Amino acid sequence: MTRKVSAALLLGTALLLAGCGKKGEGELEKGQVVATVDGKDITIHELNAELQGAQIPPNISPEQKKQLEQAALQQVVNRRILSDIARERGLDKTPMFLLQERRAEENILVQMLQRQMSGAIKQPTQTEIDTFIAQNPDLFAERKIFTIDQIQFQAPRDPAVLRKYQPLTTMDQVEAMLKQDGLEYKRAPSKLDVATANPQLVEQVLKMPKDDIFLIPAGRVMVANKITGTEVQPLTGDQANQLATAMLQQRKFQDLLKRDLEPKVKKAESEVKYQAGFGPAKKPAAPVEK
């Protein structure tokens, strides 16, 4: 259904632009207006904003870039046509639209805030990169790739059920327990590259006893893992520099968030008033050491 609508819109838009007669392609304001829909302009700035959300590969040819621009413009045109139809039907006056409009506005502002803050982070110097590489041999000179026996399974509704899995020492025991609990699962070998995995996870894995089983939440599923093999593949040269640069920038970004945003967020959160039953869940108390 959607594909048919899109195809029809593309054809209809082409006819509309070609047969409008009010403002031909050569009469558009050069450098500003790239198309008109029902007398309303689509500007180059709108097109550029559309392209920002696209994954444009580097070093593409001018012809490929033009094709991407044309495809992005058609998306804007199609969206403009359909949104005009929705307005004709009064959908922009409904409570649901107003709620979704506010939600979209807030999401856009958050994204722009993130981009503004990340844009303020300076590129690390080569000295910083070299120092980081030297201080993290597990990620570079002694980079490890773990072979893992992995079981993905449906997360139980009651998280307390997972406590039964803590004493287990083999993946066969985990599989047997999943069958006993009637939870769907899939078992397959996997790889964990310490250079590309979540840094916090890597830190925990490197500190774990060799034969431990560790559980990782992943949305609506849990992942049980046990390391069955380790391979050392040093990461050097440009690849090492690129990874070190990305990790240093991420650390600087996190530091910036803690310094600039965290105090304001905590202050604002402390002033929020919730109706009974709608407040955030209380964090569980830390276990008492015996």
UniProtKB/TrEMBL annotation:
It comes from Sphingomonas horti. PROSITE patterns: PROKAR_LIPOPROTEIN. The lineage of its organism: Bacteria, Pseudomonadati, Pseudomonadota, Alphaproteobacteria, Sphingomonadales. It comes from the Bacteria. This is Peptidyl-prolyl cis-trans isomerase, EpsD family. Keywords: Isomerase. Pfam families: SurA_N_2 (PF13623). InterPro entries: Trigger_fact/SurA_dom_sf (IPR027304). Transmembrane segments: none annotated. GO terms for molecular function: isomerase activity.
